[in-house]
């Protein structure tokens, strides 16, 4: 992938919270501090969100909208009498709150201050060890409310990682991150999504991945195979053309739609779940906030 310069545009937003209608997720509310994501993952299914803004999907990783008033707006939303602070909010549902932009703009850090002020239940999802900068705030949120951090790590193959997540932190950094979060006493999950069919979903590779994160202290692992949305399928297929063209007919058979063949996906989930159980990274109850009414 060619590297392009990143353009930052500062915007004011009217709303920060949005309702998430996915029954199996451990939260019903989500928020994002940026639009667009510099990590530029090959398999990213959030790229279509730039289209809503009238921007080309290709700009998703290079034109980043910085929500300057995110903290003020969220503070107002959490202050409403109808809001309950035991409603877990996922930061972030669409883009990574600790992408490189956060180093400069610190929007996510200001948003964490708001979570702390309201003792609101928080689930953070990231690929970046930049989150360790905010360990002071995260520890306080965890002590006075509910906190759960999920680190995305779909492979232990660093060469593959460079191809599929070109601007995201290395695997070594993410493993260290899991360890640091565990040492800090923070509930830490790992999202091993997506496992790439015929590339990174072999049983021995999945076992090595789950064993490695279990040894770092992960509380739970969630894993699943690749699915497509929007232009991701086209991007992925052109990647296969270079990576291994012999896989193209196999993928065409496996993906008659944007979703992986059910029988294949079930087989991967079954062996993955067996490994998750073996290494006892199945403490899924820790994902949920039930502590207050
Ligand atoms: S980190 Fe997430 S949001 Fe960002 S490019 Fe990768 S998959 Fe997309």
Key words describing this protein structure:
pyruvate-formate lyase- activating enzyme, 3-stranded mixed sheet, 10 strands
List the helices and strands and how they pair.
Elements: E1 7-11, E2 18-19, E3 29-31, E4 34-35, H1 48-52, E5 63-67, H2 70-79, E6 89-91, H3 101-105, H4 107-118, E7 122-126, H5 135-144, E8 147-152, H6 158-164, H7 171-183, E9 187-195, H8 203-216, E10 220-225, H9 232-243, H10 247-254, H11 262-278
Parallel strand pairs: 1-5, 3-6, 6-7, 7-8, 8-9, 9-10
Antiparallel strand pairs: 2-3, 4-5
Helix pairs in contact: 2-4, 4-5, 7-8, 8-11
Structure notes:
By secondary structure, the chain is an alpha/beta fold. It has a single domain (7-285), classed as Alpha-Beta Horseshoe (pyruvate-formate lyase- activating enzyme), CATH 3.80.30. Helices cover 39% and strands 16% of the residues. It has helices spanning 48-52, 70-79, 101-105, 107-118, 135-144, 158-164, 171-183, 203-216, 232-243, 247-254, 262-278, and strands at residues 7-11, 18-19, 29-31, 34-35, 63-67, 89-91, 122-126, 147-152, 187-195, 220-225. The strands form 2 sheets. It has a 7-stranded mixed β-sheet with strand order 2-3-6-7-8-9-10. It has a 3-stranded mixed β-sheet with strand order 1-5-4, with no helix packed on it. α2 (70-79) packs parallel to α4. The longest helix is centred in the last third of the chain and has 17 residues, at 262-278. The termini are far apart. The site of iron/sulfur cluster has 9 residues, from loops.
